Amino acid sequence: MKRAAEINRQRITGTEMAYLYICPRKLWLFHHGIRPENEHVNVQIGRHIQETSYERQEARKEIALGGIGVVDWAELDKCVIHEVKKSKCPRHAEVAQTRYYMWWMREHGIPIKRCVIHYPKQRRTWNLDWTDDMTERVQDDLARACAVIALPVPPPFECMSICKKCAYEEYCSA
Question: Mind listing the domains of the chain with CATH numbers?
């Protein structure tokens, strides 16, 4: 088993930060290389929405964040990043992921002040503005994610309503 200090040096991705809020078991499985989601229909739909929405946006360029994730596009002159999501409304997982991206960019000298989360199916946007307490919240999330990842086995399965749409459903319910 890896020591906690080793895990803290590992990169937690934005996807993993979202999984912390969706399902700790999913976080553990994903981090440990069990990845059935690449072929799952909901993941494919999400990728399609991301790739085909806002095609005319001139500034749309995916920005890799040092291996922790990819921001869909940015207006760096305005200190704003943009994320496109499949869901119908902001959820804790999306907020945690975008807050993490904002924190990471700020830690690397890019003073991001806002993330605009786009919901193209509903033709809505939601703004997440940077606040002073976000650094502490991200650090708490990182500590919680590392604690889950450090477990010798995945957390026990808990049947939730989201399980029916999850790429890990077969794995967890077996």
Answer: 4-173 (3.90.320)
